[in-house]
Design a protein that fits this description.
By secondary structure, this protein is an alpha+beta fold. A 4-stranded antiparallel beta sheet has the order 1-28-27-26, with no helix packed on it. A hairpin with a 4-residue loop joins strand 26 and strand 27. Helices cover about 50% and strands about 15% of the residues. It is flat. Among the domains are: about 160 residues, Clathrin heavy-chain terminal domain (Methylamine Dehydrogenase, Chain H), CATH 2.130.10; about 150 residues, Serine Threonine Protein Phosphatase 5, Tetratricopeptide repeat, CATH 1.25.40.30; about 80 residues; about 120 residues, no CATH class; about 100 residues, no CATH class. About 40% of the residues are buried.
Length: about 1200
């Protein structure tokens, strides 16, 4: 043991280094809670980082560090918290209602918390709080201080340790062992205990044991070691050595243990007592190994020390951190000499591989051999520490032993024991291999090699090579014997592995020599070997030419080809000779198909093309020969022989490599040699390269050889895409000559390229029995009349019917027109029309027939259409023209028919009868107003025009007519005529007030006041339904004010239903100054019967105001006042007289008015007038 560090030396107060304040959960951290000058803090000593000290200003009752990471658990006033110091974050927190009496980390993720009544486990993962594991036993509930708590490695067993003071003053210990699976407890009397996991000899599975000190009153303490959690009937039984008495020192009779740790490295128990004594025990036997006092201060906390297999402990107050471990060099010798326990010393030496037991091992080995315990002796030698017995002498001793009948030879038993848990060394492997191979059991060696139980060497490989090359190769490879390993590769035929292995180990080989030998015995393997050598990643290991020479010396064309194909993949220029060689050996060596495949894949481009071309021609590979020839003579020679045998697709593509002139020359040569045989090829080539060679040249070529079928098939591949009219025409010609009339018809129908005149003339000249091609041409290009004439003159009437019925019914009018020109029978024409029916466009038909003055021809056809309910405008236009021409009740037709076009029939009627044109235009509902006005004006139909305008009530139309927009130079006469008819006829006839109103508005808008007066006089004064219309009377008077003031007074006197006051105000205005007229209006209004008195007074007042203010005639005013005798009138007259200095008259008027309102003005005036006051009195 030794002091690792001192906590006080690190600045930690001694009074803080005690149980409950200082914790040692592992050999990584020491954690101390201390208070210095009233400032609480937590001190963390990092034992893995040069004992670095970290102080955290945290106030906590206790703190424990996680065994492996910088996670700390803090406790203060019942609150438990866990923090991650590296992440600087709180992980969990929980408040307990019961006080915590002990806590510690039981593993890296769990904190155990012990309260007065129970034990809890609190995981740092998740959000859950502490979970109760078990309740404290009654024997541990009161008066006990909990000093430790342990959990087994599998988490299924818990050990709670407490101490208390007996009534005799002795400190007694009580432990509660709890089974998590069975949920039961067992109370043990003792001060300390722990769990350990050990490997028990003879068992494959480890044993989990409970080690504890048992101390009963009046009995010496004992060490108990027992396996827990294992069925007693399990194989191998339950591990439980005999309890051993603990050698407590006589000088410390009241001492007791406070800590126990299991050293996993040596399976040793470390127990430390209250008074500082250290005890070491062997877990396998329970025997005491050592006892010594290591400290005068109590060691209150301990933990395992992972690197040494020992323990660490901290002394109270002094702060020593002690490191306690096993001295492996002296342990065995100490047990043997000091404890005099040779059996235990031998057990420790063999189990732990410790020195110090050589003599004991020799003696025991000799004893076992002497007792004929071969198995025991073998096992002892196999497990001897540091292999002290694994010597050549030991092998010799086993080899010298006689065999026991029914058992393996002793030396085999020895090797068998060694192989159970060890790898044989070089000598052992060699000595084992010889007899095993002699017995023919090589499979055992192979098994041990796979399990890595034998040490491989050259000697072992030599022994095995005589019987098994493959196994010997494995040994040589492991033993790094390159030359012999390569020899094994060669013997196995694995030449491809030679290069990789030689490069891997840096071994140099004569590959050329090896290849020559291999080529004679195994050419295929030699070829693969040569590929490896030539394509080595680090650079070629053999010359390609020498490889070719080696194989060709043996006439191995196939292997040479395979090799060259591999090495020539790069297609490099400098390898042109080898490329040529590769093709040559196959063309001359009887494998032209191989050369053909190589050329097809276009793998090479640097060989002698001319030379290979000649060889291809000789070998019958004419396609390849053509691909290589550049001279036209060579090309023509091959073509003469093989053009018909070569792949057509190739041949067509090949011509793409020739020039225009060369292609044309070769094509002509092919036709010259055998036109029938080569025509198809020539056509395909011509079609594909027509643009490059020239269509005209190719057409000339076919025509030169008089090959209509060639020309037909050639142009047939172009016509659907060509935009050349000549191509289309030539194709039509060729198809006609070939009798391919369906094609002729198709092109004539679908093509948009050919010249229609040329094709039409050609077809007419050919006089085909089936004229459909001609029909399509004429139909598409509007040669209808020529087509009709051709068909009619050639008695092809059936095709005329087919044409108008199925091809182009819309062109029937042109056909009919032409037939009429040709004096065709009318019955045939009518039949045509009947067969076409509704599909025939009527407008065009009428135009065609009308132009030829044969319109009546259509009457039955048109009437038949109308009888079926036809409402087509053109049809009704046509029948209308016929009825008008025949004077067949045209007025009734024009007025009642709803389907004709007024514009069309209107124009048609203008020359025949303008009145009929008027009826047609009138039926247009305004769309033909301009024509209607034009016709009625031009033909003097003003009465109709006037009636139409009045009825139409269209101010815009009125404006155009009245302003003369339709009249031209005759505007004034037309306008006058129209107005006369409006005044004399249209308006007197109407009963519609809206029509009258609109007409008046129209005249007003046109600024025709005289005409308006004339119009209004006719309506208002000459007796009509609108004579008493107030608005019209108002309008008449106002219009007269503007245009003819002399008539105003007459209108006022003659009219009785106008707005008097309003009209009077207009009359007295500065614009007109018609004062007398205003006076008459007021007096006339005042005399109306039935009006209220106040309104009469108002009218009289306004009348007198006109006299005094506008006419300025006071005498008339006085006379008017006398006549009406109205006080309001007298008051107005009095004011006027007063202002006119007529004081006496004014006083008289005010007296009659009974109006004293102006008394001041009257007094003032009377004062200035002589005798004025007399009137006042």
């Amino acid at each position: 043991f030794a002091e690792a560090l001192n906590l006080q030396a690190l600045g930690i107060q001694g009074d803080a280094i005690k149980f409950g304040h200082c914790s040692l959960e592992s050999d990584k951290f020491i954690c101390v809670c201390e208070t210095v000058n009233g400032q609480a803090s937590v001190v963390i000593v990092d034992l893995q980082n040069n004992n670095a000290v970290t102080r955290k200003p945290i106030s906590a009752e206790a703190a424990i560090m996680n065994p492996v990471s910088k996670i700390i658990a803090l406790r203060a006033q019942g609150t438990l918290q866990i923090f991650n110091l590296e992440a600087r974050s709180k992980m969990k927190s929980h408040a307990l209602t019961d006080a915590v009496v002990f806590w510690r980390w039981v593993d890296t993720k769990t904190v155990a918390v012990v309260t007065a009544t129970a034990v809890f486990h609190w995981s740092i993962e998740g959000d859950s709080g502490p979970v109760k594991v078990f309740d404290r036993h009654a024997s541990l509930s009161t008066g006990n201080q909990i000093i430790n708590y342990k959990v087994s490695a599998d988490g299924k067993w818990c050990l709670l340790v407490g101490i208390s003071q007996h009534e005799t003053g002795v400190i007694v210990g009580t432990m509660q062992l709890y089974s998590v699976d069975r949920k039961v407890s067992q109370v043990l009397q003792g001060h300390t205990g722990t769990f350990a996991t050990i490997k028990v000899p003879g068992r494959a599975d480890p044993a989990q044991v409970l080690c504890f000190e048992e101390k009963k009153l009046d009995s010496p303490p004992k060490l108990f070691i027992m396996e827990v959690g294992r069925d007693k009937d399990a194989p191998g039984g339950v591990f439980r050595p005999q309890p051993q008495q603990i050698p407590m020192p006589n000088e410390a009779p009241n001492d007791f243990p406070v800590a126990m740790q299991a050293g996993t490295k040596h399976d040793v128990l470390f127990m430390i007592s209250k008074m500082g004594y250290l005890f070491l025990f062997d877990i396998h036997s329970g025997k005491a190994l050592y006892r010594a006092k290591i400290s005068n201060d109590p060691i209150f906390t301990t933990c395992q020390h992972s690197s040494t297999g020992g323990v660490m402990g901290v002394t109270a107050r002094s702060g020593q951190v002690l490191l306690i471990g096993v001295n492996e060099a002296n342990l065995v010798g100490y047990v043997s000499t000091q404890l005099r326990d040779n059996a235990l010393a031998l057990s420790l030496a063999t189990r732990l591989g410790l020195p110090g037991a050589d003599n004991l091992l020799e003696a025991e080995f000799a004893r076992l051999l002497a007792a004929n315990d071969v198995t025991g002796a073998a096992r002892l030698a196999a497990t001897s520490p540091q292999g002290v017995l694994r010597t050549p002498q030991t092998i010799q001793r086993f080899q010298a032993l006689p065999a026991i009948p029914g058992q393996p030879q002793p030396v085999f038993q020895y090797f068998s024991v060694l192989l159970e848990s060890n790898k044989l060394n070089q000598l052992e492997s060699l000595e084992l291999a010889r007899p095993v191979l002699q017995q023919g059991r090589g499979q055992l060696l192979e098994k041990w090699l796979k399990e890595d139980k034998l040490e491989c060497s050259e000697e072992l490989g030599d022994v095995i090579a005589a019987t098994d090359v493959s196994m010997a190769l494995s040994v040589y490879l492991r033993a790094n014997v390159p030359e012999k390993a390569i020899n094994c590769f060669i013997q196995r035929g694995e030449y491809d592995k030679v290069v990789a292995y030689a490069q891997k180990v840096g071994y140099h080989c004569d590959y050329s020599f090896m290849l020559q030998n291999l080529a004679r015995t195994n050419p295929q393997a030699a070829m693969e070997f040569a590929k490896k050598l030539a394509t080595n990643e680090g650079g070629a290991l053999i010359d390609n030419n020498s490889v070719v020479e080696t194989f060709m010396a043996l006439n191995r064309v196939q292997e040479t080809t395979a090799f060259l194909l591999e090495v020539l993949k790069g297609n490099r220029k400098e390898e042109g000779y080898l490329q040529t060689k590769l093709l040559e050996i196959n063309l001359l060596g009887g494998s032209p198909q191989v050369a053909d495949a190589i050329l097809q894949n276009e793998m090479f481009s640097h060989y002698d093309r001319a030379h290979i071309g000649r060889l291809c021609e000789q070998a019958g590979l004419f396609q390849r020969a053509l691909e290589h020839y550049t001279e036209l003579a060579d090309v023509k020679r091959v073509m003469q022989v093989a053009a018909h045998t070569l792949n057509p697709e190739f041949m067509v593509n090949y011509f793409g490599t020739l020039s225009r002139e060369a292609s044309l020359e070769v094509l002509k040569d092919l036709l010259t040699r055998n036109l029938r045989q080569n025509l198809n090829l020539v056509v395909q080539v011509s079609a594909k390269y027509a643009e490059q060679i020239g269509v005209d040249l190719l057409v000339q070529m076919f025509e030169q050889f008089k090959s209509s079928d060639g020309l037909y098939f050639f142009l047939g591949q172009l016509v659907n895409f060509s935009q050349d009219p000549d191509v289309h025409f030539k194709y039509i010609e060729a198809a006609t000559q070939m009798g391919q009339f369906k094609e002729v018809e198709r092109v004539c129908r679908d093509s948009t390229v050919y010249d229609p005149n040329t094709v039409k003339k050609f077809l007419m000249d050919k006089k085909l029995a089936d004229p459909r091609p001609l029909i399509h041409v004429c139909d598409r290009h509007d040669f209808i009349e020529e087509m009709t004439g051709y068909l009619y003159s050639n008695s092809l009437l059936k095709y005329i019917e087919v044409y108008v019925q199925k091809v182009s019914p819309q062109k029937t009018p042109q056909v009919v027109g032409k037939l009429l020109d040709l004096d065709c029978n009318e019955d045939f024409v009518r039949g045509l029309l009947h067969s076409v029916g509704l599909a025939c466009p009527v407008d065009d038909l009428v135009e065609q027939v009308e132009r030829r003055n044969r319109l009546r021809l259509l009457q039955p056809w048109l009437e038949a259409r109308i009888a079926t309910g036809n409402t087509e405008t053109a049809t009704h236009n046509a029948i209308g023209k016929i009825y008008i021409t025949l004077n067949k009740d045209p007025q009734q037709f024009l007025e009642n028919n709803q389907f004709y076009s007024p514009a069309v029939l209107g124009r048609f009627c203008e020359k025949l009868d303008p009145s009929l044109a008027f009826l047609a235009y009138k039926r247009a509902n305004g769309e033909c107003d301009e024509d209607l006005i034009r016709v009625t004006s031009a033909n003097g139909l003003f009465k109709d025009q006037a009636r139409y305008l009045v009825e139409k009530q269209d101010l815009e139309l009125w404006a155009k007519v009245l302003m003369g927009e339709f009249a031209g130079e005759e505007e004034s006469s037309h306008q006058r005529s129209l107005i006369d008819q409006v005044v004399q006829t249209a308006l007197p006839e109407t009963k519609n007030p809206d029509e009258v109103s609109t007409t008046v508005k129209a005249f007003m808008a046109a600024d025709l006041p005289q005409e308006l007066i004339e119009l209004l006089e006719r309506i208002v004064l000459q007796g009509s339904d609108f004579s008493n219309n107030k608005n019209l009377q108002n309008l008449l008077i106002l219009t007269a004010m503007k245009a003819d003031k002399d008539r105003v007074m007459d209108y006022i006197n003659r009219l009785d239903n106008f707005d008097g006051p309003e009209i009077a105000l207009v009359a007295v205005s500065d614009q007109y100054e018609l004062h007398e007229e205003a006076f008459v209006i007021y007096t006339k209004c005042a005399k109306k019967s039935g009006i209220p008195a106040e309104e009469v007074t108002s009218m009289n007042v306004m009348a007198v105001e006109v006299l005094v203010e506008h006419i300025s005639d006071l005498s008339r005013a006085k006379e008017f006042a006398d006549r009406v005798n109205d006080v309001a009138v007298w008051s107005k007259v009095g004011v006027a007289q007063l202002e006119g200095d007529m004081v006496h008259e004014a006083i008289a008027s005010f007296i009659k008015a009974d109006d004293p309102s102006r008394y001041k003005d009257v007094i003032s005036a009377a004062r200035q007038e002589q005798g004025g006051f007399e009137d006042l009195v």
